[in-house]
Amino acid sequence: MGDEKAHWLALSRVGGIGAVRFRTLLDAFGSIEAAWHATPEELRGCGIGPSAASALIEGREKIDPSGELTRVTSAGYEALTWLDEGYPDRLREIAQPPPVLYADGRIEARDRWAVAVVGTRKPSAYGVSVARDLGRILAENSVVVISGLARGIDSAAHRAALASGGRTIAVLGNGLAMIYPPENHRLADAVIERGALLTEFPMGVGPAAENFPRRNRILAALSLGVVVVEAGRQSGAL
């Protein structure tokens, strides 16, 4: 599985190859490693489209699969693909599950019993109070608190869960090599100790506006329910 996983990581770095095209390649070639080494003619005829085929052909000239796997493992991270037993079952059920999920920390069976608590980065005092109460009550009842490590409501929920001895998971809109916002480094370390940081974005990918709606679908999929504590009309939380 080592070589196969390395090729999943490499393919995840090729632009324009998402869940749908991963599935097409897997069905067409039987493995991602075989797809990675397919001829240009085979790739153009497998159903992923000419632009994606060209991106893959160009990408494999620049990306070293074994190097990608080494970068992840040497940093102490775990990479889970659809083929791994530890890949969250609930995440498999969404329309476009991420082909690769990167984790810093531990994913456990009890994480199926989870509720997301999210909201604005600029909350009122009342919003912070509610987020703290929710994080505490959920943690005291052995419910995992999931949020996005953002400023405001997210941070309050994570901290309350940790202060109550609970477990919490943060789903990021960037790669694991970067903590965003930077002032949450200590909070991220505490989350790793008592849960996990999760992301679909490869190492080195920084936060960008378009990443967060994608992040939110994972956050919601991992949760039995999502509580939006406080959010403006244009908020990504809504």
Short description:
The protein has helices at 2-12, 19-29, 32-36, 40-44, 50-59, 65-74, 89-92, 125-140, 153-163, 185-194, 211-221; strands spanning 78-81, 100-105, 114-118, 144-147, 168-171, 195-199, 225-228.
Provide an overview of this structure.
By secondary structure, the protein is α/β, with parallel strands linked by helices. Helix content is 44%, strand content 13%. The chain contains eleven helices and seven strands. A seven-stranded mixed sheet has the order 1-2-6-5-4-3-7. α8 packs parallel to α9 and α9 crosses α10. It is elongated.
Helices and strands in order, then pairings?
Elements lengths: L1 H11 L6 H11 L2 H5 L3 H5 L5 H10 L5 H10 L3 E4 L7 H4 L7 E6 L8 E5 L6 H16 L3 E4 L5 H11 L4 E4 L13 H10 E5 L11 H11 L3 E4 L10
Parallel strand pairs: 3-4, 3-7, 4-5, 5-6
Antiparallel strand pairs: 1-2, 2-6
Helix pairs in contact: 1-6, 8-9, 9-10
